[in-house]
Amino acid sequence: MADRFPQAHAAFLGGSSPTARRTPWSDLDIVVVLDGRPASFRETLRHDGQLVEWFVYTPTSLRHYWQQNISHRRTPLLRMVAEGVTLIEADGRAGAYRAEATELLAAGPPAPAADTLAFQRYLVTDLLDDLRGCADPVEIAFLAATLVLAASDLLLLAENRWSARGKWLPRRLAELDPALPAQLMSAQQSALTDGNREPLVTAILAILNHTGGPLQEGFRLEGEDPAAPSPPKARPTN
């Protein structure tokens, strides 16, 4: 690493690799922070037979992508720095980044806007009706998978918790309810293997009811028209 990034003043090994969750297919997720060039790129290479994902930033671009994580309510980069293993530490800067990332994680995501939560409830309600009325087994399989993801996002949004994708999503759900990921998986499998959609319908309805209930009639989402004139600016009163 020192040969490739001699100007690095901090680096972290994140993801599953430094944990007990590592598998033979785990890659190495390495965050590098440096001054100067090269800066701000992501690259996947193989080194000595091991797949390595490089996440390379300057101090300013690192914080920029932290804020992007926060706006998307997901935390992969924040967690790699806050929870990863320090590989390079210069002048205490890696420790400072770790403390900053830890603080941002602990603060949680911004509170969701009411219309954002309403839209997610509407989306899940619509998908649930599609699942109830669907007869094609292929469509049922896709709907079941989409519903589990959308309902998971809805619950985490309503509880103002961090969300995730892939294997990290059930881990975020388990922080709310340790039994819920397995319950949703079992209900999804029942819809796919037995053709019995009722367990999944029941599980999704429970999430909807917990987050304000199904939403259809009365839902309204204001749109934007880039060609519409801007409202007049207020004039000063003095």
Automatic annotation (TrEMBL):
SUPFAM superfamilies on file: Nucleotidyltransferase
CDD domains in the record: NT_KNTase_like
Annotated stretches, region: Disordered: 216-238
Domain of life: Bacteria
Amino acid composition bias (Pro residues), ranges on this chain: 228-238
Family matches, as InterPro entries: NT_sf
Protein name, per record: Nucleotidyltransferase domain-containing protein
UniProt organism field: Actinoplanes philippinensis
Origin organism lineage: Bacteria, Bacillati, Actinomycetota, Actinomycetes, Micromonosporales
